[in-house]
């Protein structure tokens, strides 16, 4: 579904942020993207969404990620931001959720039906008419996921979906992600969450893809993780 071929990027000339990155993510995969701060994870996700120009080739569902295809690419890929407040910009959950489907051409009636289906599926129907500023952090993270799911993307990119959540809400969000059928790319420092959810892990360090393989194999390799400023998941220590 997503393919990078020899992709490089630099914010400042002569100081590469990503260097010669190549990988493929197949439909239905759940892939963890890990790496220390500043390794290039966020840059890689922005490139997928066409937010940055780059060298090399990137395709989403066979479409080159370029200006001509940006609208279609962003229909295929939903992006759940780390900061839910940056994503939820309407007064209520319902208004946020209905905005995307209607913007993509659904009637108000069909969009509202889709909103109700997603809320019921996620078990958060009670949030429909809640105000964004009056719900908890965990509820807001669930609502942010619901907002993306209402647009029916084929793939979902998530940036630190469990950050700053208490244990109950963290587990709630993890269970929601686990039940999603979409192709998923999850960038996180929460290696226990990645270990629980992902079949495959890509490790980026200093802008290079240094490991890409079975999640358990990568996340149990203490020497590899420590060499790249990461530690074993707590469940394995």
In short:
The chain has 237 residues and is of the alpha/beta class. It has helices at residues 41-48, 70-76, 84-87, 93-103, 108-122, 137-149, 167-179, 191-197, 215-219, 222-227; strands spanning 2-12, 15-25, 30-34, 55-60, 63-64, 77-80, 155-159, 183-187, 200-205, 208-214. It has a domain at 2-84 and 149-230: 3-Layer(aba) Sandwich (Rossmann fold), CATH 3.40.50.300.
Protein traits:
alpha/beta; 6-stranded mixed β-sheet; 237 residues; Rossmann fold; 10 helices; 4-stranded antiparallel β-sheet
Can you characterise this structure?
With 237 residues, the chain is of the alpha/beta class. The protein has helices at residues 41-48, 70-76, 84-87, 93-103, 108-122, 137-149, 167-179, 191-197, 215-219, 222-227, and strands at residues 2-12, 15-25, 30-34, 55-60, 63-64, 77-80, 155-159, 183-187, 200-205, 208-214. Strand 4 (55-60) and strand 5 form a beta hairpin. Helix 4 (93-103) packs across helix 5 and helix 5 (108-122) packs across helix 6 (137-149). The protein starts with a strand and ends in a 10-residue tail after the last helix.
């Amino acid at each position: 579904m997503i393919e990078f071929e020899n992709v490089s990027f630099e914010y400042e000339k002569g100081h590469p942020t990503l260097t010669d990155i190549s990988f493929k993510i197949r439909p239905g995969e759940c892939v963890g993207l890990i790496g220390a701060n500043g390794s290039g994870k966020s840059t890689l996700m922005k490139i997928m969404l066409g937010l940055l120009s780059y060298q090399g080739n990137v395709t989403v569902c066979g479409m080159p990620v370029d200006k001509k295809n940006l609208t279609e690419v962003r229909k295929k890929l939903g992006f759940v931001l780390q900061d839910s407040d940056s994503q939820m910009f309407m007064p209520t959950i319902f208004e946020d959720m209905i905005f995307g489907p209607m913007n993509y051409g659904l009637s108000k009636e069909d969009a509202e039906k889709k909103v109700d289906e997603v809320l019921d599926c996620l078990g958060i129907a009670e949030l429909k008419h809640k105000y964004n500023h009056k719900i908890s952090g965990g509820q807001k993270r669930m609502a942010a996921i619901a907002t993306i799911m209402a647009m029916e993307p084929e793939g979902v990119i998530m940036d630190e979906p469990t950050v700053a959540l208490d244990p109950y809400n963290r587990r709630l969000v993890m269970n929601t992600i686990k039940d999603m059928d979409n192709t998923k790319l999850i960038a996180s420092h929460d290696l226990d969450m990645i270990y629980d959810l992902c079949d495959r892990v890509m490790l980026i360090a200093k802008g290079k893809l240094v490991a890409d393989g079975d999640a358990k194999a990568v996340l149990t390799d203490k020497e590899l993780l420590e060499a790249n400023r990461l530690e074993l998941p707590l469940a394995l220590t």
